[in-house]
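Hey, resending since the last one bounced:
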Amino acid sequence: VSQSRYSNNMKRVLILASIIFFVGAVFVHAYTSPGKPQGYVSDFAHIISPSTVTSLNKTLTDFSLQTTIQVAVVTVPTLGDETIETYAVKLFSEWGIGLRGSDNGVLLLVAPTEKKVRIEVGYGLEGTLTDAQSYGIIQNIILPEFRNGNMETGIIDCTNSIISVVKNGADYSVVQQQTSQPKGGDIIYAIFFFIVWGSGIFLRILAKSKSWWLGYRDWE
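The structure tokens again:
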């Protein structure tokens, strides 16, 4: 009887592991790359003027030379079937943003079609550019401009704010408040998202060795 129970338990574990792997694999393969990086600023959605792209690239190049920290600004025409969170994690991994061995990259991702924006931070900077800092920058710096139709200004100000936090210790911290208790559906979604998030983390670990260079909010 004991052996039978052990076998049944092992079967359940294997089935659950297979389901988790399958779900994670589906989400991993659903991602479509926007293309190769075009510098520190990759405007695939064509919402930034050429002069601003040139100016931001110079700013971020100088910042990287001074600090070794790499900030990538990316706009995409669409997220496809991805959430902004999973898209940011997978793009971060694909491009290997951040100095190899330091994981000190930052990704500012803007998806104008879905009206989503996210700041993805490498592990090496999480103690400086915290979730509260990223949320505050998005909430108080970039979203007001986006809502007024000033997307280019919002991207410039957001980039400068990220630099100010990392380089000068500026404080934009805003703690996001939990307004209600999670419902059953929210818990299921959280478990589901954790599986996807775990797959993304695994990809980011693998991507650390292939650097290509030396928070989200809806703004409706």
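The first strand starts at residue 41 and ends at 43.

Sorry for the duplicate.
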